[in-house]
Amino acid sequence: MTPTPHGDNRQLEQRAHAIRRNALMMGKVQGQGYIAQALDIADVLAVSYFHAMNWRADDPQWEGRDRFFLSIGHYAIALYAALIEAGILTPAHIETYGGDDSHLPMSGMAAYTPGMEITGGSLGQGLSVAVGACLGLKRKGSKSRVFNLLSDGELGEGSTWEAAMSAAHWQLDNLVAIVDNNNQQADGASRQMLSSEPLHEKWQAFGWFTQRVNGNDLAELVAAFDAARAHPEPVPRVIICDTKMGRGVSFLEARERNHFMRVDADEWDKALADLDEGARR
Amino acid sequence: MKHTRQFPAPDPSRPRRSTSAMIASFVAEGQKTRLAPFGHALVALARERPAIVGMTADLSKYTDLYVFAQAFPERFYQMGMAEQLLMGAAAGMAREGFIPFATTYAVFASRRAYDFICMAIAEESLPVKIVCALPGLTTGYGPSHQATDDLAIMRAMPNLTVIDPCDALEIEQAVSVIADHPGPVYMRLLRGQVPLVLDDYNYRFQLGKAAMLREGREVLFISSGLMTMRALEAAKALEADAIGCAVLHVATLKPLDEAAILAAAAKPGRLVVVAENHSVIGGLGEAVAAALMRAGLHPAFRQIALPDAFLDAGALPTLHDRYGISTEAICSQIKGWL
Ligand SMILES: Cc1ncc(C[n+]2csc(CCOP(=O)(O)OP(=O)(O)O)c2C)c(N)n1
Ligand SMILES: [Mg+2]
Description:
heterodimer, A: alpha/beta, Rossmann fold, five-stranded parallel sheet, two-stranded antiparallel ribbon, 10 helices, 7 strands, 42% helix, 12% strand, globular, B: alpha/beta, 2 domains, five-stranded mixed sheet, 35% helix, binds thiamine diphosphate, binds magnesium ion
């Protein structure tokens, strides 16, 4: 695909909107789910897939592609939504989300889904796998990069920091970690459970080129992904994205923060309408 | 990785079932249940036992420990999503004289935190009570959350007592018993609306003791956990075919009540069927088989258990049928074997 020209985020806005729509339609199929996360991360996925990464819709295994590693298996609904928008999956898949014998299981698994690079679900493993993949890509002389989407909850796992230290040690400038800092985990607000702040200083101290942005601001995201590409030092790159759960659907944004959000049957169409309404403003 | 799974086209005549992730229920329609039996029993016990503390790794809601957290906020420790830390810190708490109940999902205790449980807790025989939700196949979420191997892993650990309770009543009773036990315990947990079954059998949980719940002449079920519930249902259903089934419930897998198992299996002419919500490898089935062999008993022997495989994602009832642990699947296997 061709990267969007700088300074014009209209196309990316449309992509993000389509990703949110796809996710809501999958949520409607199951009646519940990790919809608030999908809405908060849609902008990051739009910029990743339609600005930053190289890939081929007709060949998800193309050797020259950039790899997108989703260790947070429960965010699969968000990635499926992006893969549908990218044409790697089709809209016909939406109906099957989370059902029996579906290519779209509720938690992301590599064997089930074209475009799903790794099996997630046991959180805190993705960044280690990314380190190895980056070492392998360098060993092959490949110019491909690895993007690893992490959650703020995953920052609690010690394995994440082992990998963070290792990535800097091996000077993995082909690694881009993206942290969805939505301040939410299963039991409540991340910062009240095991605070990982100060985040910027922490990643910097671990030797990473560190940026912290509003993860729901496309212009900031584009600038950050561009800077991550252009940064001259041989160090791994991290983009910490402060995001808002439920972003784009006003009544879900306002709802009590919830890891596994309950949405009533009649609310899904309202959510789609609210999303479309917001996009027209 | 290249995706390799192929699926048949959806059959529109079949009702669409949903995965329902962590809140999947195996409660049968009309079954009696109790809400959060572990949480409420722990609160009741903690009122008398100030040494009890609750600890979790971002899963108090999904292990019913939230009930304790609400009742005793000062005695509740939210460690964040860090299972190795959870087990290490529980060991530290125990060293200082407390009795920590540490909760997470069974997969994350048995896989991620194994070494910490092994060396920090079990090697010193510290009184940490590890209580873990989603045992065996109790979620359709996929292998990351399906603890099909936890009993094999935990049974192999010296000093550790391993328990697989059947229902709400047994969980309630087990809480105080494991708190009194001086060493470390791994207990599988059913959470949320938990079926109530054993109240009909005048049952009382005793650590290390198996219990004969009903007698029968053709089949001897030896079962643990929710498979005891299923074995009892199958036994009732098989009465219609004049197949008499005994059910020996083995809640404690380690130490195993070999005397009770051998006594039951020594009765001649019965097919011995070990039923467990676990892989065929390393669980109750192999433990019973080894005990029989050592004693020189050779009854006809079958296992009802999950295959040695990473299981599918999907709706839980679909998967219980697919892997042969639903009541209907148990009945048809028994009929095939007799
Ligand atoms: C190793 C591991 N421990 C626990 C869990 C259970 N779990 C699933 S999601 C989740 C919350 C993790 O935080 P985060 O990803 O930030 O949650 P979200 O933002 O989606 O609410 C937990 C504890 C898991 N999947 N993996
Ligand atoms: Mg989060």
